[in-house]
Amino acid sequence: MNEITAPTLRRLMENDRTLEEVRVSPNYNGDPGMDYYSMRPGIADIFPRGVAGWKMAGEIIGNNTSLSALMICGAGGGGMKNLEVFFSGAKRNNSICRLSFGPNVFGGAPFLLMVPLLENNCNLTMLSIRETRIGNDGIRLLASALSSCSDHRLESIALCNCSIEDGEPFEELVATLNLDIVAQPSRNSTLRTLDLHGNNIGRTGCAALAKMLSNPRCELKALHLTDNNIDDEGIASLADGLAKNEKLAWLDIAKENPITNHGWAALSKILCNTKTINDTFLSNHRLKNLGQGKHHTRVSGRIKLPKDLASHLKLNGKSSIDEKPFAPIQKILDNHHDWNMSQFIEEELQYLPYILCWIDRAIILSRNVDGNATTRKRNIGTLQSRRNLTIHQFVRTMPLIFVEKLLDNEI
Question: pLDDT tens, 34-82?
């Protein structure tokens, strides 16, 4: 036991609430002053020696009730035996909310050892694996670990720069995440963020993610796919999955992926399908950002999205009034100037009250939405004109029915 480990273990045994995160590592160079990480407030290191040291560290962490984050940075010469005895004690912990595996943990075997911790700890919401070459075998083991504890409450999973390739192992992992949603109708999905940047999921990976995104019970709000060899076909698959998705607001895909205007067009279409007014209304009004920022990338230089796509994203980002998005109103006004009601007139007058109600609600929203005063005034005038035009089209097409309903006090 060295001069760093002893005080850290003592703080853990005393449930020192100022100690928020512990990093467990087999390496100690005797110069903690050079380690910026260990100098950060609320963070400390443990350097176990031998199997006995790993076992003691795990038992002390298992009994602690205030620690919020744990990082494993390797296993030392004892390899899996060290991690096995460590997790046999640490699995009793109920306070850790973030579990991380650092750059020196190779392969995926440790993931099976963390299963009891996932099952027993209802506060564990974040799993982070970064700069670790787990590869396809590791992904399979991670999928197996997650499927064996389907009651986990993970809200964020990060698998960054982990040498993940497109193919069956990654599809198995996504299928496991999707199965968590499908197999338990009474339980809402907890996963909100999935970070996969710096891998190589390619087309097949995008197709697997699209299937999960198309599930109405998928609760993902952010999906990070920077630098994943995603091309036009890959983003087209994602676009298909997002067509009916009402949750994902952030798709970090613009940087370090070989996507051309052809691929962006597929995404633009699901954000604003202009085929009919109804198609525009049912478009995706949730997605707000593709991670484009104001950055340069090594693949495509400065990121510049097509104007129509950038406009749709900006519109989706507009503030909502009473949780009713303004985006569909503006998209309809911008893209449907003839206001053809023929598709609704076929059903006689049954749709007219709903259409007029929507227009009236749109007028109210337009008055309250943040933005340019001139634009608000123009939109309100346009909507009032469209309201009169709608009534005119119905009356002109079926005057006798309209008069009959009017005489019967049905309208």
Answer: 343 445 678 999 999 889 999 999 999 999 999 999 999 888 777 889 9
Nearest to 207 by CA among 186, 247, 185, 178: 178
Q: Which residues contact 285 (CB under 8 A, 6 or more apart)?
A: 271, 316, 325, 327, 328, 331
Alpha helices in 286-398 (DSSP H): 307-316, 327-335, 342-345, 352-368, 373-397
* DSSP one-letter code for 108: S
Q: What is the pTM of this model?
A: 0.85
Tokens 């023929």 locate to 342
- pLDDT of 336 > 50? The answer is yes
Task: Please give the biggest Cα pair distance in the chain.
Answer: 94
Tell me the pLDDT band of 98, cut-offs 50, 70 and 90: very high
Which residues make Cβ contacts (< 8 Å) with residue 386, sequence separation at least 6? 339, 359
Question: Are the C-beta atoms of 257 and 251 separated by less than 8 Å?
Answer: no
Checking if the pLDDT of 297 tops 60, the result is no
* Amino acid (1-letter code) at residue 235: I
The angle, 0 to 180 degrees and rounded to 10, between the axes of the packed helices 232-242 and 261-271 is: 10
Give the pLDDT confidence of 108-160 residue by residue, as tens digits: 667 888 888 888 888 999 999 988 888 788 888 888 888 887 677 899 999 99
Phi, psi of 46 (to 5 degrees): -130, 130
Whole-angstrom Cα distance, residue 227 to residue 199? 7
The angle subtended at Cα 205 by Cα 199 and Cα 211, nearest 5°, is: 140
CA atoms of 185 and 215, how far apart (whole Å): 12
pLDDT at residue 318, rounded to an integer: 77
Which one, of 135, 36, 26, 132, lies nearest residue 82 by Cα? 26
As a 3-state breakdown, the chain gives helix, strand, coil percent values, each rounded to 5, of 45, 10, 40
Give residue for tokens 């100022």.
18
8-state DSSP, 222: E
Cβ–Cβ < 8 Å for 278, 233: no
The residue with tokens 């309201």 is 387
User: pLDDT of 7-17, one tens digit each?
Assistant: 899 999 999 99
